[in-house]
Design a protein that fits this description.
- The structure is a single chain.
- This protein is an alpha/beta fold.
- Helix content is 31%, strand content 22%.
- The protein contains nine helices and 18 strands.
- Strands 3-4-7-8-11-12-17-18 form an eight-stranded parallel β-barrel, surrounded by seven helices. Strands 5-6-16-13 form a four-stranded antiparallel β-sheet, with no helix packed on it.
- Helix 5 crosses helix 6, helix 6 packs parallel to helix 7 and helix 7 (255-264) packs across helix 9 (281-295).
- It is globular and about 55 Å long.
């Protein structure tokens, strides 16, 4: 290892909830596959972690019709959590990706509180660094309530997961709420080790010629640079209100974006939609952050976390 690379590693080294990370740059679930798909473009060991594609208890085929459409400075998607299910992930996918030197963080979704507990227990294996709870799914037992917009429901999911795993539990917050701070405090009180935010905003597009929605599911999740100001504001608000570390995400596509989120209070950042545009973007963000810290004569990235001056 060259001296320059060694210094880079020293500046960007960090840890969250006991997870050691070579850099504070992760990849957001649903935008990076299982990591192995990007191995030709990215040094996976330089990433703080890979949040793999959303995993459910049973296989899901996803939504019908058009599932992705480009929007100004972003995109809408309604994939519908297409995935092979947790058993196939454990039997086939995890053994393959475990050979890479990276933290594997598994994003899980359930239709009931109990499903989150089952998934958490099944994924409590050495090859998994942490689990991320996606609470933007309908709660079937409660008549369609979305866990992510109800503080009590989100807290119940956290408690269930914590009761069934020794792994750090990350709760991914939905921005589609009136008060993000109330949600954050509720999941922190329930035992969440880390909070990641934000998930996608709910959006829609209409084809003016057919007069029909573009997406087969009518609405979808809006992501990309267009949502960055909203995400940054929410990270700043939550960071002032909770003690647990935050993984900031939402429209990050440059090292400058990443630096903003760190200054706002995030201990790490996750890159999502930008991976589709440039599969090597995370490496450029790592390099940019390192150069920024060097110019500022800062020895550790942790020194700028929450350092925004108000």
């Amino acid at each position: 290892m060259s001296k320059d690379i060694d210094m880079q590693d020293k500046r960007l080294h960090t840890s969250i909830a006991g997870i050691y990370m070579n850099t504070p740059v992760l990849t957001a679930s649903g935008t990076f596959g299982f990591g192995e798909e990007f191995a030709d473009f990215v040094d996976l060991s330089r990433l703080g972690g890979v949040m793999v594609k959303g995993t459910t208890l049973k296989p899901r085929r996803g939504n019908d019709g058009v599932r992705i459409t480009e929007t100004p400075k972003g995109m809408l998607n309604c994939i519908g959590l297409e995935n092979p299910g947790v058993e196939i992930f454990l039997q086939e996918t995890l053994p393959r990706i475990a050979k890479y030197d990276m933290n594997v963080i598994v994003n899980i979704s359930g239709s009931t509180v109990e499903e989150y507990g089952i998934l958490a227990e099944m994924l409590d294996v050495p090859e998994v660094a942490a689990i991320e709870l996606n609470v933007s799914c309908p709660n079937v037992k409660e008549g369609g309530i979305v866990f992510g917009t109800d503080p009590k429901a989100a807290a119940a999911v956290v408690r269930e997961a914590k009761a069934h795993t020794q792994k750090p539990v990350i709760l991914k917050l939905s921005p589609n709420v009136t008060d993000i701070v109330t949600m954050a405090k509720a999941v922190e009180a329930a035992g969440a080790d880390v909070i990641s935010l934000i998930n996608t905003l709910l959006g829609m597009e209409i084809n003016i010629h057919s007069r029909k929605p573009t997406l087969g599911n009518i609405t979808g999740g809006l992501s990309g640079p267009c949502i960055k100001p909203v995400a940054l504001r929410m990270v700043y608000q939550v960071a002032k209100a909770v003690q647990v570390p935050i993984i900031g995400m939402g429209g990050i596509s440059t090292w400058e974006d990443a630096a903003e989120f760190l200054l706002a209070g995030a201990s790490a950042v996750a890159v999502g939609t930008a991976n589709f545009n440039d599969p090597a973007v995370t490496m450029k963000i790592c390099d940019g952050l390192n150069d920024y810290l060097a110019r500022q004569r800062i020895e550790s990235v942790q020194e700028i976390v929450g350092a925004v001056e108000i």
